[in-house]
From TrEMBL:
The lineage of its organism: Bacteria, Bacillati, Actinomycetota, Actinomycetes, Mycobacteriales. Signal peptide: none annotated. Residues 1-17 have a biased composition (Low complexity). This is Fe-S cluster assembly protein SufD. Residues 1-20 are annotated as: Disordered. Belongs to the iron-sulfur cluster assembly SufBD family. Residues 140-372 form the SUF system FeS cluster assembly SufBD core domain. It comes from Dietzia natronolimnaea.
């Protein structure tokens, strides 16, 4: 049994800690959230949600020592029939609808941002072509905050491709609000410059009989940390949370997700795949990826059907992957629940099979990696985006000499 104590710390939450002083919560869904940065303690590695993150590389954005914005995020999107693009204040009643910040940096972003971008697809509107959104960072040495919301009104159907690029330090909150019986596919591509630090809370809210397919693709950046939270507002919702990441020397890429099933008869599928390559003899930190997959099935969520999977392929020495899947189930009346994760090197049997048929080893290795990522890439519904990501993987393989 865990011994717990409570303590009051100013205006912040009342933490519950174990005998070693490490905070614990009753369930993963009870993680504290607030729009007030001062309600959060300064992160430390004693905090579960920060234990893998290299805090010394956060440039002071997490502890209050460097929080003054010196630049801006530039969001570009073309309006079209059925799509409304707005810049609003954070006092707009829609902002925060999908959830409040769940860590100090996200709260700092909410407190510091001047305006939010809201993209709305009107009720019963079907957008046949993808909406392309570009987000440019503030530039090397600069700090910027952001808040965006993509919302589909009931019975709408749309696909968004969000391209994040450039450099600098970026902290943001992004909301995806999917109305009843609406269908949203969103592909987020983090193709940052080598200097970029990107920290984000993503909030995925799915309505009755609605479907959301979310794919996060991470290639660039010095340190990228994305934390998506999925919630369902009514029965019948379906969410597919996918991810693809590729880390090189010096990169830290972290995806920390939670799917919170709190209502009956909803479905979730999670699939993330990552590859890492490093150089043990270099002066850079090892390539490091972190995947934390949390699925919570609350007592009221009867009929839930969920499965999550993470696979990591370590291509060279000088690379480290952490993979932690978790299921928390509070009712036995479910349709199904499961999880799986693995970290490994090339499958020698696959290599042997290909080489035995006359394929050179370097070509065989590339084919294995392409096949490894194919399951995620093929889930993207936009052909030109699939091609772009496949080409990016090929460039990464060429740079590794594989």
């Amino acid at each position: 049994m865990t011994d717990t104590t409570t303590a009051t710390t100013g205006s912040g939450p009342t933490p519950v800690t174990d005998r070693y002083g490490i905070p614990v919560t009753a369930t993963k869904g009870d993680q504290f959230s607030s729009f007030d940065v001062n309600a959060f303690e300064v992160p430390s590695h004693k905090d579960e949600i920060w234990r893998f993150t290299p805090l010394k590389r956060l440039r002071g954005i997490h502890d209050g020592s460097n929080v003054t914005a010196t630049g801006n995020l530039l969001v570009s999107v073309a309006e079209r029939d059925g799509l409304t693009v707005e810049s609003v204040g954070t006092d707009d009643k829609r902002i925060g609808e999908a959830g409040a910040p769940r860590d100090r940096v996200a709260a700092q972003a909410f407190t510091s941002v001047a305006e939010a971008t809201v993209l709305t697809v009107a009720t019963e509107t079907v957008l046949d072509d993808p909406v392309y959104v570009t987000v440019d960072g503030p530039g090397e040495g600069e700090l910027a905050y952001g808040h965006a919301q993509i919302r589909l009104e009931p019975f709408a159907n749309a696909t968004f491709v969000v391209d994040q690029r450039g450099g600098g330090t970026i902290a943001e909150n992004v909301e995806f609000v999917v109305g009843d019986s609406a269908h949203l596919e969103v592909v987020l591509i983090q193709d940052w410059d080598d200097d970029a630090l990107h920290l984000a809370n993503h909030h995925l809210q799915v309505g009755r009989d609605a479907t959301l397919t979310y794919t996060a693709v991470t290639f660039g950046g010095e340190l990228v940390r994305i934390a998506p939270l999925t919630t369902f507002t009514a029965p019948g919702g379906t969410v597919n949370v996918n991810g693809l990441y590729y880390a090189d020397d010096g990169q830290h890429i972290e995806h920390r997700l939670l799917v919170d099933h709190a209502v009956p008869n909803c479905t979730s599928r999670v699939l993330y795949k990552g590859a890492l390559q490093g150089d043990a003899s270099s002066n850079l930190p090892d390539a490091h990826t972190v995947w934390i997959g949390e699925v919570l099935i609350r007592a009221a969520a009867e009929g839930t059907d969920t499965y999550e999977m993470n696979r990591n392929l370590v291509l060279t020495d000088g690379a480290r992957a952490d993979s932690v899947p978790n299921l928390e189930i509070e009712t036995g009346e479910i349709a199904g629940a499961g999880h799986a994760s693995a970290v490994g090197r090339f499958d020698e049997e696959h290599l042997f099979y290909l080489m035995s048929r006359g394929i050179p080893e370097d070509t065989a290795r590339r084919l294995v990696v392409r096949g490894f990522f194919g399951e995620v890439i093929n889930r993207i519904g936009v052909p030109e985006v699939r091609e772009r990501i496949a080409e990016a993987v090929e460039l990464e393989l060429q740079s590794s000499g594989i």
